[in-house]
């Protein structure tokens, strides 16, 4: 993928947000061969953006590959990391996916489930834009922090 093919601007201000920086960290962490070492944050996060054209290229029915499943894990790991940063309690993401791309993502803090999401069609995992991805992550983060605030005793177990 060349730099010209990116749908994300290299200087997009959203790349400076905590969530996007955490996403870049998570993606670099799963890169065992150092492929992303010389890549810009925009290039690393570009596959998360599914434009209409990109989505049209993906079959409606299909099995997710390991790369897509790694992106899903990076997304929920990033949310968990931000939960930990905010409340100083360990947040653990648990993702269970079938080979067909269906499953569930759960984030627990202590004995408390702070996020529970049913996953479908993971082979088409992506967002219309980085801001849509950040908005969804922020929504999950705020709900999780609200739940932790409501049940701090359970979260601290």
Explain how this protein is built.
The protein has 157 residues and is an alpha+beta fold. It has a single domain (9-155), classed as Orthogonal Bundle (Putative cytoplasmic protein), CATH 1.10.3100.20. The chain has helices spanning 18-29, 41-45, 52-57, 66-87, 130-150, 152-155, and strands at 91-97, 103-109, 112-119. A 3-stranded antiparallel beta sheet has the order 1-2-3. The N and C termini lie far apart (46 Å). The model has no long low-confidence stretch (mean pLDDT 92).
Determine the number of helices (DSSP H or I, runs of at least 4 residues). Answer: 6
CATH C-level category: Mainly Alpha
H and E string:
HHHHEEEHH
Structural class: alpha+beta
Cα radius of gyration in angstroms: 16 Å
């Amino acid at each position: 993928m060349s730099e010209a093919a990116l749908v994300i601007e290299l200087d997009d201000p959203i790349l400076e947000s905590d969530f996007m920086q955490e996403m870049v960290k998570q993606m670099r962490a799963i890169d065992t061969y150092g492929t992303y070492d010389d890549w810009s944050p925009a290039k690393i996060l570009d596959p998360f953006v599914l434009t209409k054209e990109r989505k049209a290229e993906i079959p409606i029915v299909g099995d997710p590959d390991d790369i897509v499943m790694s992106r899903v894990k990076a997304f929920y790991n990033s949310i968990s990391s931000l939960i930990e940063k905010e409340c100083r309690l360990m947040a653990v993401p648990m993702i269970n996916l079938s080979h067909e791309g269906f499953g569930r993502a759960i984030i627990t803090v202590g004995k408390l489930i702070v996020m529970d999401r049913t996953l479908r069609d993971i082979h088409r995992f992506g967002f219309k834009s980085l801001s849509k991805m950040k908005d969804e992550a922020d929504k999950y983060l705020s709900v999780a922090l609200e739940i932790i605030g409501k049940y701090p005793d359970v979260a601290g177990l």
